[in-house]
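Bench notes, bay 3.
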Amino acid sequence: MGGTSDVLVIGGGLMGLAIAVDLQQQGATVTVLSRDFQAAAGHAAAGMLAPQAEELPPGPLQTLCQRSLALYPDWVEKLEALTGQTVGYWPCGILAPQFTLPANPTGAATAPRYWLDRSDLQQFQPGLSEQLVGGWWFPEEGQVDNRLLMQTLSMAAQTLGVDLQTGVTVKGIQQRDRQVTQVITSVGSFRAHHYVLAAGAWARELLPLPVFPCKGQMLSLKVPSGYPQPQPLGQILYGEQIYIVPRQGGQIVLGATVETVGFNPNNTAAGIQQLLAQAIRLYPELQSFPIQECWWGFRPTTPDELPILGASPCQNLTLALGHHRNGILLAPITATLIGRLIQQQVADPLLSAFAWDRFCSDQSSTAALLTLPATPATPMQLADRPLSDPNLSTSDTPLKIAGRSFKSRLMTGTGKFDNFDDMRHSLAASGSEIVTVAVRRVQTNAPGHEGLAEALDWKQIWMLPNTAGCQSAEEAVRVAKLGREMAKLLGQEDNNFVKLEVIPDAKYLLPDPIGTLQAAEQLVREGFAVLPYINADPLLAKRLEEIGCVTVMPLGSPIGSGQGIRNAANIEIIIENAQVPVVVDAGIGSPSEAAQAMEMGADALLINTAIAKAKNPIAMGKAMGMATAAGRLAYLAGRIPVKTYASASSPLSGRINS
């Protein structure tokens, strides 16, 4: 059995070491348990310090990141002074080149940024793509060499006297009366007065917290010998789906894929090809640079991509995990806030935004936080269940699209799920029979879509290929044809369905009415059953129906926004005039909003984000299936008319008079 320390830190990666150093400097005795130092996510990063370049939305995470960036110079100076080692801190600035002109190049930001036009951009950094229209310059951001930082933190911890136990696997955390009593490991038990869980992507193995691995592949290039400059890049390049990080020693780091594939190791040809293609597109000079190294790692990610920081249900256990893409940047502030919380009992107000219980309802407990049913539940099909009075009918005709019948009126999507198991269980729980698949993302093995086509049983589910990601009519038509072939390869020989999306606007993701109409006309001529995604425009909906579309799919509010039904009046007009099924698509965030859309008279719903990004996707899938059925039944039953005045529910005749 290990000795008793003031604080026992579970996890010897970036966060665990940073917290241990802070606590030891405050006078605590600290033990760190590390299973595999080299597997820590900190080794697989690029070391960017980029809260502005990454376009983090205003809110607690951006505030946390900005506070941590401000701490960085003093923090690394103290580490270097303590160890005599460098961490490669370089406030080099970040350049974010743009292939399309932003809507507001002079828009405000929380920190200085400057717009460079095409000519200024090329002078600022020669060799960039000629297709670029300009770029943002963020002078206050920079980088640290993450591998040097990890080595320096380990050395600092040992120099200060932290008991660093390596090669130790934690098997369980024993609790009693809301207290951790000991930690069971592969080499015995450890006890402490206080405990910190900083186990990164592996934390869920110890407590039922919603932390999942998000795989990232990376590689590095080397500036060729004899090149005119030892390092041609003077700053980080932050592009579309790629960042290029120059090191002062001549190395250039490319990253990183974002893959929800569990703990699936190794680099893949598709992942490396994706990184190289995007990097060369941005900075063509790289095509002649030799590849130096390839690697991968697992980011610890939560459903809302915010870290879990602060108190836990156990009074002597503090949480510090789930930092997703911002671990390197957030190390100083995490160590500071957690150290202050443990040693001084001072909870920074900002910690409340990152509390563990944001993933729980009021009735939830930690033990039930991520409890999944052993067998996926099937929602009650309310319209098919007879009521006790045989004179009351709840029968309903099936949903018919292009001559094909479906019992369920809920369509679901496959994007944004943390893993395939959650996706399968959620879709099964929803009762959905029509499932959309983004053709381009499957064809290109985009992050989170590798193996998606094979992950579902297409004998039980009707595939709805969609043209997500297409920005023009021509592109959508081409992708629709790929989708039809993909359906055939998966055994649906007669599937000519396509969900048509033409979305050139990357900010608001609103469909292009002209491009949608043009693509729909061509696809209908070529024999497709077209289900077009549109804004809630009654005139466009009627025109699409007239040219032969088999449904119209007006959005309730912008994709993934969870704003609910913001276009009710126009959707009601579409429903009133349509002779084809009306499917409300996008924006629904809760079962009550799903029921509302069905009560309006919609024929079906399409829901993805509200299920996939729910705290419990399986439960939400079931709830959405039930709400869709209930809303349909309510529509068939017919609601009472709205009256200006009250109407007593009990009769006035036969009253007892005093």
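Next record in the batch:
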Amino acid sequence: MRKFNSILVANRGEIAVRVMKTAKSLGYRTIAVYSEADAAALHVRMADEAVLIGPAPVQQSYLDSAKILAAAREAGAEAIHPGYGFLSEIADFARACEAAGIVFIGPTAEAIDLMGNKAAAKRRMIAAGVPCVPGYEDKDQSDATLIAAAKKIGFPIMVKAAAGGGGRGMRLVHEEKKLAGALGSARSEALNAFGSDELILEKAIVEPRHVEIQIFADSHGNVIHLGERDCSVQRRHQKVVEEAPCPVMTPELRVKMGAAAVEAARSIDYRGAGTVEFLLDAENNFYFLEMNTRLQVEHPVTELVTGLDLVSLQIQVAQGEPLDLEQSEVKLQGHAIEVRLYAEDTTQDFLPCTGRISIWQPEEGDGIRFDAGIDEGQEISPFYDPMIAKVIAYGENREVARHRLIEALKNTVLFGLTTNRGFLIDILNEETFAKGQATTAFIGDLFDADRLAAKTPTEAEMAMAAVLFYQIERDRAKAEALFASDQLMDWSSGGALLTRYVFGADENRTDVTVSPKRTGGYDVVVGETPHFVEVMGRSKSRAQLTVDGTRKRLHCEAPSDGVLDITDDGKTLRFVNEIAFPLTAVTAAGSGQVSAPMHGTLLEVFVKIGDTVEVGTRLAVLEAMKMQHDILAEVAGVVQEVIASAASQVSVGDLLFEIEAADDDGK
């Protein structure tokens, strides 16, 4: 294989930063590529050289292989690391690299082709003797054939896109009458996501664990595995928490699963880093799920328990060198857990969010690792995956790792956009997870809409917010005054100062009054309940207070007048002083006006003017942040206006449809 001294990273965000860290530490020249939306991104600033490859949409930038190769030629890159996602599992891109004389840091195009198609991969694994889930993976894709196969397999059935993963093009079907609809929607999503609408069927394994084996192979015939990761905590088939080792793994089971994974890689003459994924049932039976022919998002947990740098191993193998590690030398020590920090609103069905990161202060400490590609001031756009960082904790045992991770999440300061941080903390604190008993059904079983609903602030939190509001406004007024003595702060010649705030609205409206005491601290009345608050210390982003004698440490930010964000024990709350911002008329939930919930592209529009719709009728499909979101009618009635059109770009709040609501009697 051709030797190389420079590496272009054909990716963005945290994985681009992570690959560059290792490459630079090994002495390689690094080249970044970036879209117009990422001009100021961390991975661009970190690289030795950076090349603009096009507009923000991925089809015109990160997924355009011709532009990536042109950038490599322009920068003199001798190798390309694809990271994960984007072009990492596109066989034609690997071929194009080879044809251009550029080393592709990954497996051969043939291996990518074979394992990238779930149907072909499963047929090869069956031939290699790797245990597989009963299913249908043949060429005939007619509805009649698939329905007949499903009846033979038996319900429940998993419908899966043959050409992709990540939960896209995947449907769980419990009964035959819903299968035809699931086939249609899965085909549409698969075609949009992967360019292929081929499907496979699998018998649904009830409440399994998702356990994967990290393998490594060189071009000299050596194949080893680096142990397993448990990725069972998932939402809509997308991983949320990953850990190594698996909590229920036994040495005997690890040997069996490891041997199956090694055989899977050996049977396709694999090279580089790969992951063989299995479903593990309650009786420790395991079944091949798929093989990912790239580095995984969750690779850090394997690095922490093995002490190995997987990117370094990838580069070593790509240089044509043999692995300098034998299976007997792989030792797993301690425990590591990773969570994926997403820009999403868990109270709104995990709707991806955009915004500008105003404060980012990761809480680093013993056993804590942050893999992130973000920085303060960075805009999180609607064009890319909403994962903004990974937080990983290591400990000598699982409990130490779990507690370290919870504290790292709680103590990290992050303002400017909504994230799933509180949800992650709730998962890690949940008894089922703490006992290592979580399966793929964990989130669906324990986190319903009521539990995910927005948290109501406590009286103590309202009291602290009011005092912080008061101090921020007081300090701002002092800074603007020509002459203001510190001795006169919180003092009035007309008697006790009394400042009123109003939080919430309608029946949840709460009056809060703040009165500073000359002896220090503040008397605060929340509704009709008195509290006493002292501020022990406050900076731009942190505050330490006592409420009725209880010490609290908060993160805080006042992004604008009359608005205060606080994070208390990992829970972020927004307080708006309604005196500063009187309530204005807004479109009520359940009205006939249907607006875009976020920036994105409308893939399909299903209704026209004059159509009668019911509550829940599917009006359109919006694609944003790599996911498809159904736009549903919130009222029954008749469609009066259709402003939306397929293939158009929309912004958050854009009016899409107007529905004239039916009367209570249905007219």
